[in-house]
Amino acid sequence: MSDKDQVQGEGDYKSAEKFNKDERAFVKSGGVEKAAGEAEPKSAGEAQELKDAEQAGRSHSKGEDASFNRKSPKSGGAE
Predict the structure, then answer these.
(1) Neighbour tally for 7: CB within 10 Å
(2) Counting C-beta atoms within 10 Å of the first and last residue's C-beta, which end of the chain has fewer, N or C?
């Protein structure tokens, strides 16, 4: 068994490879838009609950990571 197969935890390469393969297949399947629609709040009350939960989470935050909005020279997006 190679070292690659023995790594576990967050460095579990086999699981990461499977996840990435499944993720690409899901995106190619066209299921993203459907899933996004299904995740939309079903009522104004549910929308408010989500907003309140986000606000509560942000209140514990130290703020946005400064590198979050920095553009990557390679991709043109965030690093």
Answers:
(1) 14
(2) N
